[in-house]
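Two entries, shown back to back:
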Amino acid sequence: TMSTLYIFDFDDTLAMTDSHVRVIRPSGQVDRLDSREFAKYRYSPGDELDFSEFTRASGTLIDNTVIEMQGAIDRYGIENVFIVTARAEGQPVSEFLQSFPIRVPEVVATAGSAGKAPWLSRKLLMYDYDQVIVYEDCRKNIKMLKDVVEAFNEEMSADIKYSAVCILPDGGQELIESKIRKLIRSILLSL
């Protein structure tokens, strides 16, 4: 049977959250950055980062993505669907989502985006997946997770398909498909 691993990011993917990181500059100036702004933030010497707001989760659900997550749970089972967040704590995310009438899969907190790659590597080693589908608002993470799957395929002579859906700032979706390109290439080669 085909087994598919679904990975959903949380902030700006499943929910538009109002949590901010506070950057306290040496001058005493405080900048509040939302998760998109923080993804682009570059550290300057003397900056202090305050993540205390990220210990709570509140905001509004992004319905399209939540519907896709519920569909993935229906089709592939809740044990193959994960919310993988760069936050340091998963519990506020679980509690926020459980306040809605939806099924909430396991929440994995990786304390920084870079932690998503080793988590995925371990998953691929432990379970026999044919396909990985990622929902993310950050193209850098989409590419990083794609690199993990491609490296795994190379090392293990596997053929796990990877596809990703990029969640846009307005909550819309953009399909980033590697399968479509492969299909077109194979059709062109057979002509």
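entry 2 starts here
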Amino acid sequence: MVAIRTKENLIDKIAQDHVWRLREISELKNLIETPTISELRKRVLCRAGIALLYAHWEGFVKKSGTYFLEYVASQKHNISELRSNFITLLVRGQIDRASESNKYSAFDEVTRYIIENQSTRAKIPVKNVVDTQSNLSTTVLKEIMWCLGLDYEFFEAKEKMIDLKLVGRRNHVAHGELIEIDTDDFFEMVDEVLGLMATFKNLLENSCVTESYKAA
């Protein structure tokens, strides 16, 4: 696997993960639009399509978000050069251990580590940080956005759509429950999910290009 060390590396990796998802969604949409397809097959494909749309949304967030973390981690920045969310990620383990001890002195070790290591290279964890919990609700998405240092505001207007129409209905389908999704409804969801993916992609790329992940 090629290390993600440059802006070009990151943008290319995100684009590669994005484009195959777009093609698959487009292919399904074209299949549903086939003039000779029966109404039953349309209904079946629309139900299956909701699960597929959700899978691509979750997969894209997890994959491209992890790519972004790999990029930031590879930049070899000192702790003092990064935004606070990345510092929190790298001391998470120490915070967990301090919490278990239930002693203020244990938390002081975390504080001293941050103060005394400002000029030390930040070893940002990458694995399992972008955790979709296999159920990417807006509550989970908000936490992921915070971990990546991205502005969640862009998704606030889409919360009901994400939680009810995308995640909720995907769960109904995944659990084998009867839920009707007609063609117009499915095509509307295609546009919504493509918009979500494009927004997330743009936020990652903008943060990379403008280096907004760095401390002000």
